[in-house]
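Limitations

Structures in this collection are predictions, not experimental determinations, and the ligand pose is part of the prediction. Treat each record accordingly. The example that follows, with zinc ion as the small molecule, is included so readers can see exactly what is and is not provided: the inputs are given verbatim, and the output is the predicted complex.
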Amino acid sequence: MRIRIHRGTKEIGGTCIEMEAQGKRIALDVGLPLDAPDDPEEHKSLLPRVPGFREPDESLLGVLISHPHMDHYGLAKYIRPDVPVYIGEAAHRIMKAASAYFPDGSSFTAPHFIADRTPVEIGPFRVTPFLVDHSAFDAYSLLVEADGKRVFYSGDFRAHGRKSALFEAMVARPPKDIDVLLMEGTTIGRTGSAEGFATEKELEQEFVQTFKGTKGIHFVWTSSQNIDRIVTIFRAAKRTGRVLIVDLYTAVVLEATGRDSIPQASWPEVRLYTPFSQVLAIKKKELFQDLGRHKVNRVFPEHLPDLASRAVMLFRPMARNDKGVESVLDGAGFTYSMWEGYLKEKGSIRVIKWLEGHGIPRCTIHTSGHASVADLKRLAAALAPRTLVPIHSFETGRFGEFFENVFRRDDGQWWEV
Ligand SMILES: [Zn+2]
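Predicted complex:
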């Protein structure tokens, strides 16, 4: 078996790995690079030069997407539609549900679904997905076997989220005889990675204290697709006697998880509020069916003042100039709950200015979606690969400080397993 990494040997995001055995090939992930231009028109040219992506090539048997984060699937929509795509079923449902609300929230037509510890045969390849703890829902590591070799691709993972039991099960009973481990190292070199990160349970406690200390409504800005975080916020809201107010986009994403253990817009502790700009979008895109399914606990601008001191609202930047939101800014609090790096973006700066303009205090409560160095070490030790190839990190040159048998590769370079 041969492998080449098209993107990721020296960067986070844009991940794409090509594997070849017996003249047949598969690709793992086709992500959008983090430094891609804002203009989607320019993205197509970033598609990696994998034969079969652009022109017909029958030796390309399929593409597997490890999880629904843009930096892992964002370029997949430019691949010829006859190339089979494999992805988790819930992951696909979430992407499909979100696609009506975001211009770049693409989905795939007729994908093949992968499931935890259920091998799929793709020509000479046998691929076994392992569900992992990550900030994206329905995320997998992938064990690829061919030509008597075994390659384990970690995908993105962590051990301090709400699904940490998955990580513990993996290190307790790891797949054996791994020739190559392709392991992410997102957090290497980042603040806190060496010491270990706060768990989602610890965050829940922080949110409880913060909500208690807020007189009026408390806004939390996070990704609606970070389901672990939404659960954390929901639980903290409930513990402080507050309802969680979500918008329609969040409601459809929560529904798309397909899990009745995850908060839903129909739950008594949840409310649906559609900011005016979303009302316009609902009309324009005819999202009336989504609204119809989720309107049972809907509240309107006139309800917000009464509800404010008993509510946590998931913040959407588009809601800044909404009449209902503007009416509840007295005594409001605001928590930022995403990677701090995004705060440098133009949209975030506008939000910060808006908060400052209204005198709303801001704090950050967040933990990484990726494993700490200690947990990366635990996975590497458990899998004990013959070689460990760094991927998905800006610090791949530092892997040798932490792990055994590290063999760094270059983008585009084939190597024999
Ligand atoms: Zn990810």
